[in-house]
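Figure 6 in text form: structure in, sequence out.
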């Protein structure tokens, strides 16, 4: 664990994982102003102080180096605002694991995504990226559905961390813009998106598309670029982005639904209904990044369809 000012959720995280692991290792990344250090030292002697560099990859690499020093060979990475769910499934995963680690599902509100969270520390690898960091390593990281991790920040942490990632991205862009690939631009776009900087986010997603990234992320770069363009009333560019998204993932439904809404605003109700019907033949991906809660999203779409049906004959 890499910890700083984490007392709000740390004990919950420790309670969820302690019965299923043999050792807990932690670095204190910078000075905490709360009881974080006391809480973690009460459960493990393997705690070391390190500076905070505004660089998540550097701090995670220091954590992994320290874990190796204390003799850890396999590691489960958990943050203080994570909760391990169904930890009993860890042992079955370890019994069948044949690779450099494993990806586990992360649930964060209505978002579901997969991350590398189990690592063979005897295989050489390192973290890359000051924020929205990724682990670079040879070997396979198969995807498992259990156990999974529930990510939930406390109110105090959410307030204290507001704008932190965006600030790190902006400084990084000023200091070393040549280091950025498509994945980093996607992360920057997401931070701009969450702060409602629509025009800048649309440009960041365009850089993701230009430089390329893996297919799931590329698909959502098109989707989120389209959403930014919709919010700035650049409708034709939004439709073009959504059309490109359908080429990346033709069986995923999000792009068709958003095109349906745009054509509703254009008062082209036939196209609106055709695209909605087409979307119903598609699937919701298991890695999904909806803009709003799924139930609310479905209710909104139903409203568009009902209104388009009513207005079609007028």
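Output sequence:
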């Amino acid at each position: 664990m890499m910890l700083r000012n984490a007392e709000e959720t740390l004990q919950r995280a420790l309670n969820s994982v302690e019965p299923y692991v043999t050792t807990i290792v932690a670095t204190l990344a910078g000075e905490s102003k709360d009881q974080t250090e006391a809480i973690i030292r009460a459960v493990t002697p393997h705690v070391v102080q390190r500076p905070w560099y505004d660089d998540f990859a550097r701090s995670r690499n220091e954590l992994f180096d320290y874990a190796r020093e204390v003799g850890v060979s396999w590691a489960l990475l958990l943050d203080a605002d994570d909760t391990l769910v169904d930890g009993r499934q860890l042992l079955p995963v370890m019994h069948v694991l044949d690779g450099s680690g494993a990806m586990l599902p992360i649930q964060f509100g209505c978002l579901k995504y997969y991350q590398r969270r189990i690592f063979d520390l005897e295989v050489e690898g390192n973290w890359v990226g000051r924020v929205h960091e990724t682990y670079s390593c040879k070997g396979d990281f198969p995807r498992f559905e259990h156990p999974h991790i529930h990510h939930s920040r406390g109110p105090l942490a959410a307030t204290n961390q507001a704008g932190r990632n965006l600030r790190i991205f902006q400084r990084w862009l000023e200091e070393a813009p040549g280091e950025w690939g498509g994945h980093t631009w996607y992360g920057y776009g997401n931070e701009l998106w969450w702060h409602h900087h629509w025009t800048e986010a649309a440009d960041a997603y365009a850089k993701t598309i230009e430089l390329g990234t893996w297919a799931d992320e590329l698909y959502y770069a098109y989707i989120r670029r389209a959403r930014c363009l919709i919010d700035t009333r650049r409708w034709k560019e939004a439709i073009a982005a959504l059309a490109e998204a359908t080429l990346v993932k033709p069986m995923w439904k999000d792009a068709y639904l958003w095109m349906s809404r745009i054509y509703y605003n254009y008062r082209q109700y036939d196209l609106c209904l055709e695209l909605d019907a087409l979307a119903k033949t598609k699937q919701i991906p298991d890695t999904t990044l909806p803009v709003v809660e799924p139930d609310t999203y479905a209710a909104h779409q139903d409203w568009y369809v009902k209104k388009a049906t009513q207005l079609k004959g007028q």
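Caption detail: Residues 287-296 have pLDDT under 50 and may be disordered.
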